[in-house]
Amino acid sequence: MAKESMKAREIKRAKMVAKYAAKRAALKKIVNTSDDPQAAFEAAQKLQSIPRNANPIRLHNRCAITGRPKGYIRLFGLSRIQFREMASAGLIPGVRKASW
Question: What is the H or E stretch that residue 79 is in?
Fold first, then answer.
């Protein structure tokens, strides 16, 4: 089980990414497509002034139940351990243990 502070930090980052997404996209577009080097430089400076945690790269997938950061199964939003327990208990619709 992850520390509550780690889960809270991840939630805080997700909110910040959502808050600054439009502003980041607009500035990145100016930086990448501008013919005027001065405008591109100013946009890059503004982009650097945005908080680091607003960058979506800094987000990390975590298990919805335990907060475990490793062994994450994206389709279900769970770690491998929770996925196995829930699938064995029949709590995930359409998933069952293979046998042949």
Answer: strand 78-79
